[in-house]
Amino acid sequence: MRPLTACLAALACLALVTPATAQNDFVGEWEARYHEDQPERIPGPALGDYLALPINDAARMRAETWDASLHTLPEWQCRPHPADYGTRGPANLRIWKEVDPLTQRVLAYRTHVQWQAQERTIWMDGRPHPPDDAVHTWQGFSTGRWEGNSLVVTTTHLKESYLRRNGVPRSDQATLIEYWGRRGNVLTLASMVVDPVYLTEPMLRTTNWQLAPHQTMEPYPCEVAEEIDRPEGVIPHHLPGTNPFLDDFARREGVPQPAARGGAETAMPEFLATLRTRTPAPAPTFATAPERSPVPTAPLHAQRVQGNVYMLSSPEGNITLQVGEEGVLVVDAGPAAMSAQVLSAIQAISSAPIRYVVNTDPHPEHTGGNRTLFAEGETIAGGDVVNAVGESSRTGAVVIGHENTMMRMTQPDLGGSRDLPFGAYPTDIYIGARKDLFMNGEGVRIEHVPGAHTDGNSIVFFRRSDVISTGDVFTTVAYPVIAVDQGGTIQGEIDALNTLLRMAIPAAKSEGGTYIVPGRGRLTDMADVAYYRDMVTIIRDRIRDMKSKGMTLEQVQAARPTRDYDGRWGATTGPWTTDMFVAAVYRTVTTAN
What we know:
Elements lengths: L2 H11 L14 E6 L4 H4 L15 H8 L28 E7 L6 E8 L4 E6 L17 E7 L2 E7 L4 E4 L3 E3 L4 E9 L2 E9 L8 E9 L36 H6 L3 H4 L10 H6 L24 E6 L2 E6 L2 E8 L2 E5 L7 H11 L4 E5 L5 H4 L2 H7 L21 E5 H8 L17 E3 L3 E6 L2 E7 L9 E5 L4 E3 L20 H14 L11 E3 L6 E2 H23 L4 H7 L6 H4 L8 H11 L5
Parallel strand pairs: 4-5, 15-16, 16-17, 17-18, 22-23
Antiparallel strand pairs: 1-2, 1-11, 2-3, 3-4, 5-6, 6-9, 7-8, 9-10, 10-11, 12-13, 13-14, 14-15, 19-20, 20-21, 21-22, 23-24
Helix pairs in contact: 11-12
């Protein structure tokens, strides 16, 4: 029986563990039970133990280069287990339900796991899952339905995390499917993780509890501390092929090394027999991200982030709005072809005039709509700004950009043009590190992040709303675009990501708090930026090591130093391919430590 067939059969059999009555009541206090999986769930799994996990080569490489010291970084000290792993630790459990007071229908089940105080909501009222651009969380978004006497739960919108606490990754593209069943005083959970980035087929786990109505649930506070004194920007990891601990598990337990390395086939009893006649393993095959074909312009989707701030998203990129009685501040105007849509979306949120437009970089997908928003906007002006008595002070919106952005847009030798009308370029140039505004009751800081995506990038921090708009120094859909011919560098990109992390303050469990609007992709928070920063830094370190050994760019590209991340971030066609990213890193990385 193949692993996928076994998974489906096991899930189907779960319906038999409960009596014939439908919709069993799971409410109560439950004490975790441990069996042969206790060593994994309590002390933790051994390094190099991927036995029976249906992982692909990309997941294996990430696990083999992982360093446990990563947990000491401030960004990860208070990270909780995700929904698909939270029940695997010291997981005493409380379940209660939320009931509509009028109809007495169950609206949701809520769960609390003692370890790390993880809480989930399983919605039972038929609501849909959020759109793709919604924020992801550790517990994801869960909906439940009854199949006979089993509660079937589907969870999406999970943050990136781990399948096993020894470096085996799970991407933020995964879906979790769970079957909850009760027989007497025993509660059983069978869960299946489907991850197109790191798994070759679904991964199944089972966990159970015993009813324990008198157990005590203790709180689980967490406070970040400096655990290790290391230079800022250092991300613990092993360069490929240098991890000295990977063979310890196989040697100690007498497990053949090919089995310890995991893969769907290692779950099958006949796998050991194949080792005796095993031919040399074929070359590894790594996950590849789906090809990104050109996407037609789609309607903008608007969502409120928090405070005064909204996010407009489309395949062309994101636009951030700050609205209030004083007017509207727009971060990035979008491409010219979408100007009518952008203006309509703004007017649907606020009838106040557009006061400011901030360009985070010089590229037309951010600045193409400048002229339209400028013309529809209105500057708060008077006195000497008005040329003559009786003339209007309505001179259009103020378009703000860094000096380098203006130079890139207007100087032909830098790829710009002077042929556009007034208002298509920034009308208010700032020089230096930052420009501050006070708008709609909150401070707005526009900060220059040099040498990242370009040499003129700005990020915008709405202090009271606690939202940061990043432009293209951060995205959730691709490797960072480093425009080397426009002053972009890999170190500047990493510095910009670390700047975002210094500015952001998460709420409990390394989640929420400061929300971050990327240049492209879904709404995020600090943890999403931290994962991205880790990935970019690790790739920088690998390419720097290769370059220091005298490898040419062609040799580095052929070695595929990004291959364990390509299934999530890579591309072989389109405007920004993986080879282009590797070339940009190679050209701008310094070999000095």
